[in-house]
Amino acid sequence: MTRKPRGVLIVASLAFVSSQTYLAYLLGGLRPNILTLQLTFHAGRYWEILGLWGELGQRAYQGHFGYDGVHAVIYAVFGYLLATRSGLYPAAEAQAMARTAWMLPGAALFDLLENLLQLQVLAGPFGAQTAAIPLSALCAACKWGLAAWFALRIGRRVVSKLGV
């Protein structure tokens, strides 16, 4: 495995952890949690969750979108750099590295599309039946699926490198 300069990877890692912590601070108190809303395909359940959050929770959710776009860029860059600069992939596995490197940027694109759909839903009347809700949930499922796949691929590499 080749060694590459890692200073930028360390900065990206710190940015990712800080950004994720900030989002947890903004939305961590929501019950049911944000993940439940994101993966809700049925409009009735979606509006039920927003109702359970109350006005304060709804404002917190709507307010997070301004930062969530920045977060998507941060985790996309982090994922790309982790795959390409960490030394987890030898030169002979350039294709595997490239596939892994583009997983979180792909997830970020689904995240941004999910956000656009959510903003469209929230701009309409409360309780509206709209195709944007299941489309948004589909984007969220793709985003989280790519993030999980990335974590599994990186985790497998780390375990292999440690000889466990």
Folded structure, characterized:
By secondary structure, the chain is mostly helical. It has one domain. It is 79% helix and 0% strand. It has helices at residues 7-27, 34-38, 43-85, 94-101, 103-123, 132-162. It is elongated, with a radius of gyration of 18 Å. 26% of the residues are buried. The chain crosses the membrane at residues 65-84.
Sheet with most strands? none
Shape: elongated
Order of helices and strands: HHHHHH
Number of domains: 1
What fraction of residues sit in β-strands? Answer: under 5%
Put simply, the count of helices is: 6
Mean pLDDT: 95
Radius of gyration: 18 Å
Helix content: over 70%
Give the low-pLDDT segments.
none
The number of strands is 0
Question: Which structural class best describes the helix and strand composition?
Answer: mainly alpha
Terminal residue distance: 17 Å
Reconstruct the topology from this structure.
Blueprint: H1 7-27, H2 34-38, H3 43-85, H4 94-101, H5 103-123, H6 132-162
Helix pairs in contact: 1-3, 3-4, 3-5, 3-6, 5-6
Give the gist of this structure.
By secondary structure, this protein is mainly alpha-helical. It has six helices and no strands.
Question: Tags for this entry?
Answer:
single chain, elongated, mainly alpha, about 160 residues
